[in-house]
Amino acid sequence: MTVAVNDDLWSAIGDPTRRRMLDLLLADGGGTATTLSERLPVTRQAVAKHLAVLDRVGLVNGTPAGRERRYQVDDEQLARAAAQLATVGATWDARLRRIKRIAEAIQRSKEQ
Amino acid sequence: MTVAVNDDLWSAIGDPTRRRMLDLLLADGGGTATTLSERLPVTRQAVAKHLAVLDRVGLVNGTPAGRERRYQVDDEQLARAAAQLATVGATWDARLRRIKRIAEAIQRSKEQ
DNA sequence: GTGATGTGCAACCAAACGTTGCGGAAAGCG
DNA sequence: CGCTTTCCGCAACGTTTGGTTGCACATCAC
């Protein structure tokens, strides 16, 4: 059985640059392509493309404000993403524990 | 501040096909490029490339066995990856809760 | 109005994911 | 033993994705 996750959402947070952007947006309470690019090792245009991806999956919402476009994190959607991460991690942990338990049981039955 | 994670390890589990491969390897206790490709919507060659990636970051180990090459999940490394997922998810959750708390405090001070 | 700043669009490059098409090594069988 | 099957690895190729540069356009400040 496979862990059920939303691939689009996952791949959105799979990129390291996009994760750092989310971190920055959370820390500063919002930002623009220009402000984010000043604190990242990529150009404004690259940031803008990432923002478009995050916007498409609903992790951020952009609102025009004069000549700039301000982006903010969508709390609910990010919480959903965080929950997915926790789920997958917990599932793997559970499977590893189960395998370990079986291995130990086999070991015991051999020793006896 | 940015959440500290191993980008190589993360991007290895960032690909949906690779996550499903890990799931299959965990469920079956191992497998080859051929057996995995039979249960995935990609060709054997694609699976082989993914196995090489997973092998490089230490999430699986491949051992030659006759004419086939058997891969198994490395428990410790997968546990490390699961821990990273949990950490990032928990960090985002904590920040969202903190923001919500602050917003509510502002709301209260306005109402009063 | 003019200059500075912020944005969006297009062209281009490199890496990653996927495919097909081979050739070679190990098992299985007459 | 020899032939066929099966599994593998390598190479060539196409497409998507993350990144760049360059440029045209809108808005703010003076």
UniProtKB/TrEMBL annotation, chains A, B:
<dbReference type="InterPro" id="IPR036388">
    <property type="entry name" value="WH-like_DNA-bd_sf"/>
</dbReference>
<dbReference type="InterPro" id="IPR001845">
    <property type="entry name" value="HTH_ArsR_DNA-bd_dom"/>
</dbReference>
<dbReference type="InterPro" id="IPR011991">
    <property type="entry name" value="ArsR-like_HTH"/>
</dbReference>
<feature type="domain" description="HTH arsR-type">
    <location>
        <begin position="1"/>
        <end position="93"/>
    </location>
</feature>
<dbReference type="InterPro" id="IPR036390">
    <property type="entry name" value="WH_DNA-bd_sf"/>
</dbReference>
<dbReference type="GO" id="GO:0003700">
    <property type="term" value="F:DNA-binding transcription factor activity"/>
</dbReference>
<dbReference type="Pfam" id="PF12840">
    <property type="entry name" value="HTH_20"/>
</dbReference>
<protein>
    <submittedName>
        <fullName>Helix-turn-helix protein</fullName>
    </submittedName>
</protein>
